[in-house]
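Structure (tokenized):
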């Protein structure tokens, strides 16, 4: 799919007749926002800046056993970088199912909508190819997406990278890490880091998500830093509290049927 075709694709929530003919349409289920909303209300106030883990320490911190004081919350670092964390228990789900999901869902908007039917609209790979074989075949590819995150409509690009880029060491814990750089569809810039650690538990797994909004903004192809915004200018991306709610909702929702979806469609 070309960039022009991506922009031309209609934005709408849920499925229409053409989507309903897909073999996975029966997995489209409305989200239950109650679980995430209760957590969001409990985390309405921002975290103290001094209690937020710096991005440079994220790999070492998440690789240790146990939990941090603020597994779910939001706030900002001293330099203005927005921060979001979200913890989602996932009974009955294995970590490798999430590697499969990130490789599988980006080929069709109808697949992407399963994740969050009310807020996910369009998803395609920038390279124009469809699904590729391999459990971690999303690494090195860029997903183009259209979605709502609370009050913000986004047309974004997420370039998935090897977790080693940010310091994760294979075998440091039982699980997997999905790591990416978020930026713009029409401009060669990236401005945000996202990290989803999926760690095995006794009854399945858990996802520990981290977002750093405005972390290391740079030109994609050269690696040069972007010019600093004027003092007081808003950072790119959604409102942190709304992103936290969105992440909790979508991850909890998909975890509810991911094992069955994986069993049917994983190669």
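Design, position by position:
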């Amino acid at each position: 799919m070309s960039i022009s075709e991506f922009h031309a694709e209609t934005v709408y929530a849920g499925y229409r007749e053409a989507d309903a003919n897909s073999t996975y349409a029966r997995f489209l289920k409305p989200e239950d926002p109650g679980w995430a909303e209760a957590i969001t209300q409990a985390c309405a106030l921002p975290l103290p800046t001094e209690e937020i883990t710096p991005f440079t320490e994220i790999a070492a911190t998440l690789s240790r056993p146990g939990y941090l004081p603020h597994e779910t919350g939001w706030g900002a670092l001293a330099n203005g970088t927005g921060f979001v964390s979200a913890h989602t228990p996932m009974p009955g789900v294995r970590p490798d199912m999430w590697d499969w999901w990130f490789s599988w869902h980006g080929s069709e908007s109808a697949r992407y909508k399963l994740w969050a039917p009310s807020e996910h609209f369009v998803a395609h790979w920038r390279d124009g190819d469809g699904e590729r074989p391999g459990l971690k075949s999303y690494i090195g590819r860029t997903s183009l997406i259209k979605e709502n995150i609370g009050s913000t409509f986004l047309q974004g690009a997420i370039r998935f990278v090897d977790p080693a880029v940010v310091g994760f060491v294979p075998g440091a814990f039982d699980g997997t890490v999905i790591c990416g750089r978020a930026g713009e569809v029409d401009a060669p810039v990236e401005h945000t880091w996202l990290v989803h650690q999926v760690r095995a538990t006794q009854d399945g797994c858990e996802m520990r998500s981290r977002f750093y909004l405005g972390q290391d903004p740079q030109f994609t192809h050269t690696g040069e830093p972007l010019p600093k915004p004027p003092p007081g200018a808003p950072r790119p991306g959604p409102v942190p509290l709304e992103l936290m709610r969105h992440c909790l909702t979508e991850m909890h929702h998909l975890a509810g049927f991911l094992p069955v979806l994986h069993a049917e469609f994983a190669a």
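Reviewer-requested clarification: The mean pLDDT is 93. Strands lie at 73-76, 82-91, 120-125, 142-149, 152-161, 175-184, 189-201, 204-219.
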